[in-house]
Amino acid sequence: MRVAIAGAGSVGRSIARELLENGHEVLLIDRMPAAIKPSSVPTAEWLLADACEVTSLEEAGLNRCQVVVAATGDDKVNLVVSLLAKTEYGVPRTVARVNNPKNEWMFDEAWGVDVAVSTPRIMTALVEEAVSVGDIVRIFTFQQSNTEMLELTLPADSPTAGSRVGDIDWPQDTALVAIIREGRPIVPIPDEPLEAGDELLFVATPDMGPQLEELLAPHSR
Q: CA–CA separation, 80 vs 64, rounded Å?
């Protein structure tokens, strides 16, 4: 897979290293000469250019990329890069960094964003996930499908504790995708029983949170 990353700062370089280790091709783009540090990620391609300009994206060969990551520290730039990648070059997947949570509402399909990654929101979710039992925690949103990744830690008094996954009448438009138990991920097959303290990960539409809480932790509401 070929991935173009707009923004060669610490975030962009970290993403590039991970992708390269996983066997992908990576192009880092930045308009600031000081950010072009090939020695920091020697196996990546580098391009000194403004990713908001069509001529620069032509030079980058965006039409050959399967994914574009807009990882700059400027939300306006990240939106423009995502929009150009999607509308001008038909890039299948765009991932955009949200720097200011107040701007998060703009990072949707209208701006060509498939996945918006808000560092402040993720950090908040991780804090809540660490201390919340019986409450839905929103991890992040899939903009293209208008669904969310949700987490709930099963309380000891949950009426579903001890029930098998396949015997539970799950709300519509929700999918239990993983159970995390004692630090180990478990595939939620129908015969798997739920236990108090399980961290349950769901993909669901945005309005399903209250129904999941009512099902799994009614005494916490």
A: 19
* CA 149 from centroid of its chain's CA atoms: 9
pLDDT tens readout for residues 47-89: 999 999 999 999 999 999 999 999 999 999 999 999 999 999 9
| Predicted confidence band of residue 120 (pLDDT cuts 50, 70, 90) | low
On whether the CB atoms of residues 24 and 3 are closer than 8 A, the answer is yes
Residue 165 near residue 200, CB atoms below 8 Å: no
Residue 101 to residue 119: CA distance in whole angstroms: 9
Can you tell me the distance from the alpha carbon of 140 to that of 81, in angstroms, rounded to the nearest whole number?
21
- Interatomic CA distance for residues 164 and 168, integer angstroms: 7
Q: How far apart are CA 211 and CA 216, in angstroms?
A: 9
Q: How far is residue 17's CA from residue 31's CA, in Å, rounded to a whole number?
A: 20
Residue closest to 78 by CA, chosen among 143, 131, 124: 143
For residues 176 and 189, give the distance between their C-alpha atoms in angstroms, rounded to a whole number. Answer: 10
Question: Could you tell me the domains of the chain?
Answer: 2-117 (3.40.50.720), 132-220 (3.30.70.1450)
Is 137:151 a contact under the CB 8 Å cutoff? yes
Rg for the chain, CA atoms, rounded: 20
- Name the pTM for this structure: 0.64
Q: Where are the alpha helices (DSSP H) in 1-109?
A: 10-21, 54-60, 75-89
